[in-house]
Design brief:
Mean pLDDT: 88
Low-confidence stretches: 226-232
Strand content: 15-25%
Order of helices and strands: HEEEEEHHEHEEEHHEEHEHHHEHH
Largest sheet: 5 strands, parallel
Strand order of the largest sheet: 6-5-7-12-13
Distance between the termini: 80 Å
Structural class: alpha/beta
Shape: globular
Number of strands: 13
Helix content: 25-40%
CATH class of the largest domain: Alpha Beta
CATH architecture of the largest domain: 3-Layer(aba) Sandwich
Number of domains: 2
Length: about 375
């Protein structure tokens, strides 16, 4: 091939690659809410000696997107509260029944004002129903965006039990098979953002390269091909947590042993403090809204029915071990049939309606 033809071919391939890159970036923007090269993080965190990170104390933050406009406030210890300056006393009044709400962003109430959050709605419903038989129910919102169950357990042992809860509600979303790394993979920097721990030069380079849509989608296809050959579902990206969906529940599986042990430990910690533990499992949007599958299929989601069966079986198995597990998937699926959005389209979290439906599902099935 002559040099001139070679140069022309390379220029053509470069132009073609650029067109495909722009098209894929646009597709990702439409389906996931941001370009791959963008960062939509919020400065919401602070370092914590127990869980690694927690909500920033005294936070007053306005979160604005094209889907919602909300305000977040926290008290001097980082608990989410309805308004600036509000404080949650550690001492529990004898006439109160206290619920400690744990979990990541769904528990925190990402994308909704406090009045529309699960915590506020559950508190209202339980008080209307006299759930605590004469005592007033108060929900202490200790949800922390992006935190794992193992990390929050360390916070509960060191700090959370000081709030003397009667009931601990632990949110688990997307899959009951949770990450058991108590150290976590991220830390909060001085500006309030979460950053990866001890990134090597290779990891930093990899993260930069994966901002290319060609590289990103090539990696997703490769990952799914390997998973299919292995008989699994593979890793899912964009879920806000490390997530590898499971195809079949096997209580004897070595892969599930760590998460089962973690739930056992959480129950033991709660019971030693005189509290009850209640796990609450919730799915991602594509389970309630099948029309969302196009935005999740290219991120690794494949067999939704197997995933639903896995998580339902996991919850049922925990019940046989004396660990209460409430799967709110049926209520969310039923409510979504009405046509209203329970999850935002671009953001992965609940709308105000989604928070209300989930709170009602828990209130209806929570043992007094």
């Amino acid at each position: 091939m002559r040099p001139r033809k070679l140069v022309s071919a390379l220029v053509y391939l470069a132009f073609l690659g650029l067109v495909v890159e722009v098209a894929l970036q646009a597709y990702y923007r439409v389906t996931a809410g941001a370009f791959l090269f963008e960062r939509a993080a919020q400065p919401l965190w602070a370092p914590d000696p127990h869980s690694g990170f927690f909500n920033r104390p005294g936070l007053a933050h306005a979160h604005r997107t094209n889907e919602f406009q909300v305000d977040y406030y926290t008290d001097s210890r980082g608990l989410r509260v309805p308004s600036a300056g509000a404080e949650v006393p550690q001492a529990r009044s004898p006439d109160r029944y206290r619920i400690l709400l744990l979990g990541p962003s769904f528990a925190f109430g990402w994308a909704v004002d406090y009045a529309d959050s699960f915590a506020a709605e559950l508190e209202r419903l339980l008080n209307e129903r006299d759930f605590a038989r004469g005592r007033r129910v108060e929900v202490v919102n200790a949800g922390v965006n992006s935190i794992g169950v193992a990390q929050e357990l360390r916070w509960v042992e060191a700090v959370g039990l000081d709030y003397r809860p009667d009931l601990i509600l632990q949110f688990v979303y997307a899959s009951m098979a949770v990450n058991t790394n108590a150290e976590g993979d991220s830390v909060a920097n001085e500006d309030g953002y979460l950053v990866a721990k001890q990134q090597t030069l290779v990891q930093q380079l990899r993260d930069q390269v994966k901002k290319s849509a060609l590289v990103f989608y090539g990696w997703v296809i490769y990952n799914q091909t390997l998973a299919a050959r292995a008989g699994g579902q593979g890793e899912v990206v964009g879920a806000g947590r490390p997530l590898e969906l499971q195809a079949r529940f096997d209580p004897a599986s070595e892969a599930l042993a760590p998460s089962l042990a973690l739930y056992e430990r959480l129950r033991a910690v709660a019971e030693r403090a005189g509290a009850r533990l209640q796990l609450v499992y919730l799915p991602l949007s594509y389970v309630a809204h099948p029309e969302d599958m196009p935005r999740w299929r290219h991120l690794g989601v494949r067999d939704v029915e197997s995933q639903k069966a896995f998580d339902a079986a996991y919850c049922a198995h925990l019940a046989t071990r004396g660990i209460r597990c409430l799967d709110v998937t049926p209520e969310l699926v039923e409510a979504a049939r009405g046509g209203e959005r329970l999850y935002y389209w671009v953001d992965i979290h609940w709308t105000p309606l989604g928070n209300r439906v989930a709170a009602r599902a828990v209130a209806d099935r929570l043992e007094p």
